[in-house]
Amino acid sequence: MIFITQLIYILEGQEDTFDQFEAFAIPLISRYNGELLFRVRPSADAYIQSKMEKPYEIHLVEFEAEQDLNNFMQDEERKRFLHLKEQSIRSVVLIKGSKL
Prior knowledge:
The chain has helices at 15-28, 66-73, 76-79, 82-88, and strands at 2-10, 34-40, 57-63, 89-97. It is of the alpha+beta class. It has a single domain, classed as Alpha-Beta Plaits (2-Layer Sandwich), CATH 3.30.70.
């Protein structure tokens, strides 16, 4: 198993566009032996301490293998909607890990 954590920073005013992309992308995860474990929009009062910009959303996704993640990223249906991602997301911090 591999875990992907994403800290997602979107462009101001592009929240609806981001939600449109997620509506297409998230259901595809399960096609590739993956599962969205959580999707969080933390409020400002949820932070105890922070030395970096607070993300708009935090995602934790699990895939059975690295190849499953790669296959998801190359999914042709997902690629058709990447313009929505590019239009709405300013940056992403992606952290890969495994369960210890």
